[in-house]
Structures are given as C-alpha cells and as structure tokens.
Amino acid sequence: MKQGDHLFLVDGSGYIFRAYHALPPLTRKSDGLPVGAVAGFCNMLWKLISEARDTSVGVTPTHFAVIFDYSSKTFRNTLYPDYKANRSAPPEDLVPQFSVIREATRAFDLPCIEMEGFEADDLIATYARMAREAGADVTVISSDKDLMQLVGPKVSMYDGMKDRHIGVAEVIEKWGVPPEKMIDLQALTGDSVDNVPGIPGIGPKTAAQLITEFGDLDTLLARAEEIPQPKRRESIIANADKARLSRQLVRLSDDVAVTEDLDSLFLNPLDGPKLIAFLKAMEFTSLTRRVAEATHTEAAEIAAATIAIDSPEAAHGPDLDPGEAGGSPAADGNRPPDGGGGNPGSVAQRRAELAVAAKIDTTAYVTIRDAETLRAWCDAAREAGLFAFDTETTSLDAMQADLVGFSLALPVGTPEAGTFSIRAAYVPLAHITGIGDLLGGGPAEGQMKLDAALAELRMLLEDPSVLKVGQNLKYDMLVMGRHGIRIIGFDDTMLLSYVLDAGRGGHGMDALSATWLGHQPIAYKDVAGSGKGLIGFDQVEIDKATAYAAEDAEVTLRLWHVLKPRLVADGLTSVYERLERPLAAVLMRMEERGISIDRQILSRLSGELAQGAAALEAEIHDLAGESFNVGSPKQLGDILFGRMGLPGGSKTKSGQWSTSAQVLEDLAAAGHPLPRKIVDWRQLTKLKSTYTDALPGFIHPQTKRVHTSFAMAATTTGRLSSSDPNIQNIPVRTAEGRKIRTAFIAEPGNVLISADYSQIELRVLAHVADIPQLSQAFADGIDIHAMTASEMFGVPVLDMPSEVRRRAKAINFGIIYGISAFGLANQLGIERSEAGEYIRRYFERFPGIRDYMDETKAQARENGYVETIFGRRAHYPEIRSPNPQVRAFNERAAINAPIQGAAADIIRRAMVRMEDALEAAGVNARMLLQVHDELVFETAEAEAAKAIPVIVSVMEHAAMPAVAMRVPLRVDARSARNWDEAH
C-alpha cells in the first residue's frame, strides 16, 4: 500500500446487526433457513461496493476488508471480568447466519478478517494505523462511537445506513469533543451496553464540558478538587480508578499482530460468477439479477454454490449489542452540540453576532462597465474561493426572462479573524433609457456588451473549485442555462434556511435578512415603482440598479456565513447535501425541458366544462327557487342561511355568511342537495378557469411547450409545489381531471412514462410505526385496505364487499392525516359515534400506530419539531399554543409530517439519482414532471421498454443506503401517448 491508496474497513459485526434489524424475518424457501440478516448484509455490501464511487463517500477504494468480532471474549475480560457481561445472547434465528455471512463476504471476493482474543474494533484500529503510516487514506464503514477515536486527517468514517460522512467536525458535532478526546469522554461516561463503569452521574454533555475545561482525563482527575459542583466533584474523586480502568477498556488496541498484511487487502475486480453462485444458493433473486447485469454475467448458466451451515452450537459470533439493534436509521446524529469554545454551535453563534454587527453600506458598491474590471473581479472571486451571484431580469418567468444585468459579492478576510467585510458590484447589460421612441428608448450608456460579459463570467460560473452562493439559485441557473452557461458548485441560502427552519417562517431573502442580519433590504418597488407606475428592471437607472442588485448579492453572502455553520451545529448537513442542493439542478433541467400540451383537446374540454357548469347552474336555480349569481358568496349565503334557514351557518368578520368548501361539504353530507350542486359547480368552473382556459397561455412561444416552475421551499414537510401552471393540483380521481391530463402529450414518435409510488405513505407508516401486520401485508403483496378491513371487521379478504374495503381505505388514509371521528363520519356518511368506534377499533388492532402518534406529539412538544427517517426537520412552534384549536392542528400536522416528509424525501432521492442511472443504462429518457408521488418522463417509443425497469429500480431502491425499509417500496409504471393513459 502506498500514498494515494484508499482503504475501506467495514465493521462487519455492526453490519450484521444492522442488517438483521433493518429487515423483517426472511427464510430460504427451499428449507426455511433464516437468511434475513444475510440478505440485508449482501444488499448493504453490494450497495457500498457498486456505488461508493458515485453516491456514497465519493472516493474509490483501492483496498477493502470486512472485519468481524471472533467472539465476545477478548483481552478486555482479563482486565475487567464484567466487561460486556450484560450483553444478551444473539437471537436464535441469527446464530446460524454468522457463518453464512462470512461466506457471503468471501463470495464478494473480499478479505474476511477476525482474530481470537480481539474485537473487530481493535483490528480496524490496527489496519487504520498501518494504512495511515503508509500514506494511504482510510474510511471506516461504521457509525460506532467506539471507532470515532480513530478519526483524523487521514481517517474518516461513513455511516451507510444514514448516508452520512463522519469526519472531525461530525465527531465534534455529536459529542462536543474532537476525536482524540473521545477516549477520555468515554472513560468518564462509561458504557452501559459494554458494561464499562465510567463515573456515575457523568453524561456526555458534562463529560465534554469537563474535558474542554481541563484538557484531558489525567488533568481532570488531578485537579478534581477545583470542580465547583459538590456532587460532581465527590463522584469524580471517589470513582477516579473506575475512570482510569474505563479508559483502558475503551482505548482501541492498534498494535494487534494481524496475519494479513495491507497488500493482501487489495480490492480485486468483482468475480460475477462466484458471487452469483452464492446468491443463487441463498435464493436472493433480485440481487442476483442486479449483480448479473452489473458484471455482464449470464446468471442462468451459473449453478448455485454449496454453502455449509454451522449448527447453533458450532457457530460463533458476538453477543447482541443493543446499540446496533435499536432505533431508526435517523434516530441520532442530528443533535446540536453543547456549545463551547470552538465547536460548531459556538461558531454559528459567533457568525450570527458578527452578521448583525456589520452594517451594510449601499453607497460603497461598484458598477462594472468594462471587461478588464470584470476580469479582475472574477480573478478575485477565484482567489477567495467563493462569491455570491444574482441575476436581474425582465420577468419572474426564467424561461422567458431577458438578462438585464448581474451582481457579484466577494468576501474580504474572515469572520473569525475579525477582518471580515464584503465587496459587491453590479454589471449592467441591457438597461434602456426609457425615453425616446415608442419602443421604450435606446440602450443606456456605460454598459458591457452581453457576449463580452458572459465570456468572462462563463469561466467563473463553470469552475467547480469556486463556490457560487445564491438565493433561490435555481432561477438564476435556468436564466444562465438559456445562455449556454451551467453553474457548477453552489450553495443556496433559501435551501439552507429551508433545511434549518422549515415551519418557522419564510425563506425569502428580505425575511431572512430581517431575521438574521437585522437589515431591511431595498424593496423592489423602491427602484421599479408599483401599480401603474411599475417599470421593468431594464428601465431602472443604473445607479439605482447597482444599489439594489449589489445589495442583494451582499445580503446573500452574509446570510450564507450565518446559515452554513448552522448545518453542522444542528446536525442537518446530510439533509442539505443529499436532498436539497443536488435536487435544485435536477429541477432546473426539468423546468427547462417542459412538456407538450394539445390545444385542441383543451379547447374541447373548455366547451364541455362550460356546458356542464351551465346545466348545474340551472339545477341550482331550480333548487333555490330563484335565479342568482352562483359565483357570489354573499348571494349564496343569503339563500342558504337566510331564506332557506339551513343549519350550521356562521358569519365572517365582514358580516357575510361563510360559504367555504368545508361548510358546503358539511351541509351536503347532512343530506341537503343544493350545497352538493354548488360544490360540483365550483369544481367544474375552477377546472375550466384554472386549466382548460389558462393552460394554452403558458405555452412558450419558442419551445411550444409548457414549463412549470417547481418550488422547493414552499411546504413544511419537504413536498414540492409548482406554479405557472400548477400541475400538482390537477384532480386525478375525477373524470374531468383525468380528461385534462389527456392534453399533456408526448412529441411525435415519443411516449410519456408515468411512474407512481404505490401507497408510499402507508408503507412509510408501517416502517416508522413498526406495524407487523401492515409490514407483512406489504411484503406479501396483499391488498392493504382489504387486509385492514379484515383485521378490523373480521371479514374474509376473498370476495370482500367493496363498501367494507372503502371504509377501511378511508380510515387508513385518514389516520395518516389525524382524522377525527367528525371528519370520518362526514367522509363515510355515517354517524359520528360509529366513526369513533371505527377509529377506536383501528387503534386496538394496530396499537403501534397509537404509540407512534403519542410519541410523535410528545417529541414535537418537547423539541418544537419532528424528523423524518432521513433527518429532515419540520418545525411546529405553535404546538404548545394555549389555544386548543391551534394546538390540535399543529399536533395533527406533526403526526403527519414524518410520514409525508419521508415520502417526499424518498422521491427526492430518486430524482437526484435518476438522470445518472438512465445515462448509465444508455437510455435517453428525460424527466419532465414531479407530482407528489409520481414522476413523468418522455422518451422515444422504442426506448420505453428499456427505460421503465431503470426508472422503477431507482425509485424502489431510493431509500437505500440511508434507510433499509422494513417494507418494500413498489412503483407502478407504464407508457402511453398522453399522461392520463400512462398513469
């Protein structure tokens, strides 16, 4: 091994227990052999090996080894006989899988290393030291805190279950001390799992504070009399010897006399036939197929290997580590540090203080009018390694906006050095005088030519070594993309804020500036006017434009300095890096592509909807006994509650009767025909005005396609929304809505592919709430609503009445959204008492769901936020409101957020990976739309059959490797000429 090599060391024992607890029980069909842990282990190892170069730790391993515990008895038991004495024996069905997993490692053609008398951690520490001394880099594949003492400049860790890199900063983030102090910290805290005594009453936060204050364990013990807290002081003095013993127990031995040298760990090319033979013996069909495709091996020609299975008595393996077994994959790693001198929390706090203290001077900005000056600014940006960038245009529609100018902001010095300031400038390109001829006057003086400016800017924006910082940068990326420039390497302050504070407030620049900088930026209306006096930005005087645009860039850069450190301090780096930042470029390309629509279909539908609305209007007038303006809430309210005297009327602040959709739905559910007709009329007229009449107006004059705009930071849970046009709200369960989808078509010779997750939120619920009945039903491919009805009502699944299934379906989906007995009664048209009985019975049959709801509400009240299984946070600051209605609303939202948010995270992960997967498969399919749980693609008709399996595979495996779902994800995909037929 030499400098430049990279060694991956997999904590095999940790992998075993994570694999075992990540999947439901699984047996080999031919003989009933338990293979759940083997299956999970193989899938995790395959994922790590096949995708490490691209989607995991971003490096290519040259050497690779999987390290196992030989047994639970090691040299540490000589030091302390009670070491790990409280470990429970492994589960009975796991024991025979230990030897099979070792065979699996060999089938992957990887070194399988264990050594009697030593733990896997000691072997990992030894190989890490040897590789480090040889000049190589090391990645330890584990999340075990015991291994964090190894982290340093040449050694890092990678938690594959959470898709999270662990370096020095992450250790500090989690524990409040650097890696070299982890031994001292663990010596103080002890470890109940391993039965390491530590010092009673000292937890991680206290230990970190003490180590930070005294420097190390020896100094702390020597100066314990100085500790001001009496109980803490007495405990440390009385238990000093326990702390010293604990240090010996937790310190890893890095001088084990290993039998395999580093060169023997060289990562050989994968032996496809050898691995497939093992996988066929285990009857792992899906993984066999994937390996065969990746290694270009004909699986049918490979015979299954013969695998010897150890008896439970002969098998050896570690005792069960509860730390490996428990908790969801995102249960930890997202906690803020305790604070202190140089940890991420204090850095973030210091940055925020400096940002408020530094005043913004809009008179100091520069107007760049020539190529030489712009080149000097670009050179300075390269030297700084980062800069803020913002465009000024003629329209909010990035696909039709003309570029008027752009601004830059560069840092000078650093906040930590106390010399920090920002230089900002504006480059005008297409301002006009606004006077003269009828076309709006000629070009203003003192501007750069567009081509000359873009020539200088292109090299900077496409330089991956320079970080570009923007606010809602997707818009600017799309604008620059239309000029043939791709922005590579960026941060987005809007997305940073969204990850950190979803649910706490807005993420627009003005709001963020007021919150974090104490500064109110120049308002757009102050430079461009408003109302009848509004002018385009190209007509704004260049001096005013410079102050406005350059300030935007400076504010953005200041916000970046405040928000970026909080990612580490709050433990949210992976959410931003894996879910938000990469998706921005994906969505930009989707918006750029657009989708075709058929004007004739929309015109015909407009006519049909108009006729349907007119017929309903006539029926409404007959039922009301008089003609009136159906679209007038005031006239409708007077008829319903004034003349007809229907119950449930209430007046708004303006004194009018409320005729909201909920009011009308409640009246319709009570059996009143007129409100039902009003609801139907409103639906038809809304579809006509919002879609069939409006969609043709969104067709781009050049591309002849519709380009919707996706908003990434518009919801608390992570769901995307869209606008101009809003394609998210086209109804799919009504005949009229489906007809509108027929107008979304593929170009001649192409087809659309719709790929839709099946019941993803119920699957996520089964995973996070750990509901065995639901998990098993999904695993077996059973109709989940029929299964629920059978569980609740004792009705056989076979030949189940549709009404019984419909009621179970309403409950299944209603529970996710915290439905009340009142709401369920309205939905099913039954008495509230009967609905309440349904809900009570549901919780009796699935008690884990009630437990999940109670635990989630409690967590939300304690923390002010809830988390998805991927670590995304949704904040509900009003969940402690004294107002019962506000509090109840927030509780329902908090219960739903981890479910809906995880579903949103999963499809985001799929979208981020999709383009690379299609390209690798040689498929020219283009992702066009995302609508909740559905993705829409366009491809050549001849390529559809090849594209669909790739799309389905990416979507179904999107949660991995961060989360191993307890239930399988399923995707329905088909192709057709229009969107409705493909769905």
TrEMBL record:
Segments forming a coiled coil: none
Keyword terms: DNA damage, DNA repair, DNA replication, DNA-binding, DNA-directed DNA polymerase, Exonuclease, Hydrolase, Nuclease, Nucleotidyltransferase, Transferase
Domain 5'-3' exonuclease: 5-268
Span list, region Disordered: 313-347
One Pfam family of this chain: DNA_pol_A_exo1
GO molecular function: 3'-5' exonuclease activity; 5'-3' exonuclease activity; DNA binding; DNA-directed DNA polymerase activity
CDD domains: DNA_pol_A_pol_I_C (cd08637), DNA_polA_I_Ecoli_like_exo (cd06139), H3TH_53EXO (cd09898), PIN_53EXO (cd09859)
Leader peptide range in chain numbering: none
Occurrences of domain Exonuclease (ranges): 385-569
PROSITE patterns found in the cross-reference section: DNA_POLYMERASE_A (PS00447)
Known role: In addition to polymerase activity, this DNA polymerase exhibits 3'-5' and 5'-3' exonuclease activity.
Summary of subunit composition and partner proteins: Single-chain monomer with multiple functions.
Record's protein name: DNA polymerase I
